[in-house]
Amino acid sequence: MSDKNLTELEWKKFSKGKGYKDAAFVKALAALESGKTPQAKLDALAEIDKQAAVLRKAARNDEALGRYLDGAEQASDKERKLQEMQARKAAQAAPAAAADDEEETPALLTTKMIPLLRQVKKGEPMQVLVANTGKEAAVLLSRRAISPSKRKLLTNYLGVGGTVKFASGEAIWEENAVTFVLQTQAAGMAKKLKAALLKQTEQRTKVRVRGEDPSDIDDDGEPPEQESGESERQEDSGATLAGDEAAAFNARLAALMPSVKEMLTAGGPGADAVKHKVNEAGVSARQKEYGAANMLLDEAQALMSAGRAGSDGLSAPAAGNPSAAFNARLAALVPRVKEVVAAAGANAASVKLKVSEAGVAARKQAFAAANALLDEVQVLLDQAAATGAAHVQRGATEAADGGGPPQEPAQAQYQQRLSAIEPRYQAALGDRPAEAARLRAVFGYAGEQAAGGAYAKALEALRRLEGMLDTATPAQDSGSLAGYRSTLLACRAAVAEVNARIARLKAAISGQAPHDTELADELAGTLGQFNEELLAFVEAAIAGSEGEAPPAAQALKAQVVGFIAQVAADPLIQHVDRNPYGVAMEIGKTLGQRLESIRDAVPEPA
After folding, report:
1. In terms of Cα–Cα distance, which of 481, 484, 446, 485 is closest to 466?
2. Which of 43, 140, 281, 366 could cross-link to 293 by cystine, CB 3.0-4.6 Å?
3. How far apart are CA 27 and CA 520, in angstroms?
């Protein structure tokens, strides 16, 4: 059932002439449609649920009513989740709005800075806004995001009428110094900020400044605050969990930075990737997403390990991130894959096919299967390397004495037969026969036996494969069936694109409104679940289109029409498509058009 079950109009169409005692239910539906605030809508939803139960009890044997109310209940649950998120968002925005209205007195830059600076030294990050005239600077610290309106406060404090440059960022405790991580260049800033803090708080503070580039660091040139920093942290053993997480992350980043700088200085293929990961980790940490930040540092460390390992084949997997581990492993194998494919040897087609299948499995998040396929690729690559080395050795021997020991007869026979059969095998798979799965299984078995030196069994498998190829029946790919299959593939691509847009929206929400991180997670989770259901349907339809017989048209169309209605009426999709974060989504349009194409292309039975 779609969410239109919660509209007064739809209920009246359904209930016309049926004599239900529904005045209270109709009133609740009207209240939902007219509600102006999340709380008003939540109150209306509660009343709808209450009155639906009354209607259901009064007409227990009315199956049509039961189905309608089931749909209304599902729609109510979805709408309630959306309105609860909106209510939380409004509640979270209220303190920020109140903070913006706080009286902008000079005390914010002097006496009120002292306790905040002390908290930084205990490991609690603070938001920071810096005003810089070129000759001097002023600093504002805050636990919350700092409104642009505070720029006037800093300008008035500096007492200048000329150009003032502003930089925002975060103040953290790192390497026994108050470290300002600013969205600007760090050069020359440390001594200015040290002087500003001395003037504003009458306290001497060890200051470092980091820019957006991890290697861009400026220091005030004075010794670290080892003792004072340690005593500050020990004053209050009741530090918050967020402060503990921040301190742990900052300590880890500080320990990692020498290695990062070393790699950036040396350059190399992985340097830019490491720099990017460290920058992303810093962004996540500033948004207090320490789990994501530490995961990004895991990836950076894996990339650095791969760089130190050189070209020995495999990089260290990124801990806790199977996608990054798979991508790193695949990237390490690609040069060898290209060599084998370019050489067009006996294993070339198999290597290419296995790599492609591994990529498909990884895109489906089936990383165990993807890595198993890469295991097979590695065996094939090793076989190709051994064969190549044998050819080189044999050539050298023959050049020296005009001959050499013959290849093992069974091995030579296997290689000869494989070279003859493999083109037919690949062509047969392209015709999508009904026996495709069996063909792949037998071909794979032959390769496994050959890899283990059991050439007699491998030859027997190839003989069996040859007989199967002789009788394989290509799918009767009529124009309508081909067009239908292409719409399914286009819809699969559209689902992948929508998932990418959801990820971009989640990142935008976290970046522009850090207090809405929970909202972003719920949006991504709910939409992701819908996309998983849609993708499962599409994958099943693609699998069903491989055979000769067309799909059951009526049943398939009913499923597609159901998805179309859900996309068109889903309030969450509509809400996301109108998001205020500057991310173009168009989920309804993108998925709706692709689903309509499938509906129109479903082949009718002859």
Report:
1. 446
2. 281
3. 33
Count how many Cα atoms sit within 13 Å of the Cα of residue 217 in the half-sphere of its side chain.
16
CB 48 within 8 A of CB 6: yes
Strand partners, 142: 127
Nearest to 516 by CA among 87, 125, 221: 87
What residue type is assigned to position 282 of the chain?
G
Considering the chain, what percentage of its residues have pLDDT values greater than 90?
5
**Coil, strand or helix at 63:** helix
DSSP per-residue codes, 188-238: THHHHHHHHHHHHHS----EEEE-SSTT-EEE-SSPP-HHHHHHHHHH-S-
- Return d(Cα 371, Cα 577) in angstroms, integer: 36
* Token couple for 161: 């009428």
Total length of the chain: 606
Average pLDDT of the residues in 51-66: 87
Classify 585 as helix, strand or coil: coil
Q: Which of 226, 227, 220 is nearest to 196 (CA)?
A: 220
Give me the sign of the Cα torsion angle 66, 71, 72, 77. Answer: positive
Tens digits of residue pLDDT in 266-293:
766 667 777 777 877 777 777 677 766 7
Q: What is the pLDDT of residues 1-39, one digit of tens each?
A: 346 778 888 888 888 888 888 999 999 998 988 888 888
Q: Would you state the structure tokens that stand for residue 155, as one six-digit string?
A: 């300008």
User: In the numeric block, which tokens belong to residue 240?
Assistant: 């918050």
CA dihedral 445, 448, 449, 455 (to 10 degrees): 100
Taking the CB of residue 434, how many other CB atoms lie within 10 A of it? Answer: 14
Residue 344 backbone zone (phi > 0: left; psi -120 to 50: alpha; other: beta): left
CA distance 162 to 359: 57
In this prediction the pTM is: 0.29
419 by Cβ neighbours in 10 Å (0-12 / 13-18 / 19+) ranks as exposed
Lookup result for tokens 């040290």: 194
Separation CA 414–CA 401 (nearest Å): 27
Structure tokens at 130: 């810096």
pLDDT 10s digits, 67-109? 888 888 888 888 888 888 777 777 765 555 555 445 567 888 8
